[in-house]
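Extended Data, record Putative 2-oxoglutarate-dependent dioxygenase AOP1
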Amino acid sequence: MLDHAVGPRHKVRLGLEEYGCFTAAHDKIPLELHNTNSSTLEELFDLPKEIKVKNTNHVPFHSYLGQISSIPLHEALCINDATNIEEIRSFTNLMWPAGNYCFCAHLFSKLVAELDQMEIKMLFESYGEEKYSDSHIGSTTSLLRPLKYRAPKMMETNLGLNSHKDKSFMTILQQNQVDGLEIETKDGEWIEQLRVGRLTAFSNPIVVFEFWLVSRPVVCLYAYADLMDLFLSSVLSHQGCGFPQICMNFLSAMIIFQGHMDLPLLLSEYKP
């Protein structure tokens, strides 16, 4: 267990270095927004395929993906520059020409991007390299990816997505009440995400998994029922932000929104 006298910056650092994960409470994402997102994701993926395939982009894997024989349970869409409200409006109008006021992707992206930036600042500060944090943050853009893993049919595999390493700097995940994510530790063991309701504490805490200082975590997904996610990824938009090698080693993180969890770290303790 981490020493409770240690400040939040170093709790983040110690948790990531020693355990590969930590839990934290963040009360800026309202439970109502979480519930609205869950219902709107169902509407989104219920749209006809001919509508969803309109989500296109010249960047590989930044378009609609679905009904692929090797990963039949997996379906995904993508919104680039998700903190830009015009990009959200463009996507919304593409999917729902008559509009959909319940699609709160911009608010979610904005709030989670703020969380992402706070986490980055805490990490840089913990290494005494805070002067580089703004440069790094300014070099990234936010990518929002709605995901669905449908429940497998009879005699069908429940593997939703093969083991892989995310290429983004940081990924923040909000998912519905269905488990399925597994993460490989540095020792080669596969661990399941912590389950909802294990301990009641605060609404909408987060769990940060595997911000390894040497390599990105390997993750895979299993679907036992319809599993829907919202991923927000920090993607480096250009090079030359100038932070040193110790900061270059911050390769990836996985943050998971849940209903209730054990919370050794409160992000509200953090004072910039």
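Summary. Residues 21-265 form a domain with the Jelly Rolls fold (CATH 2.60.120.330).
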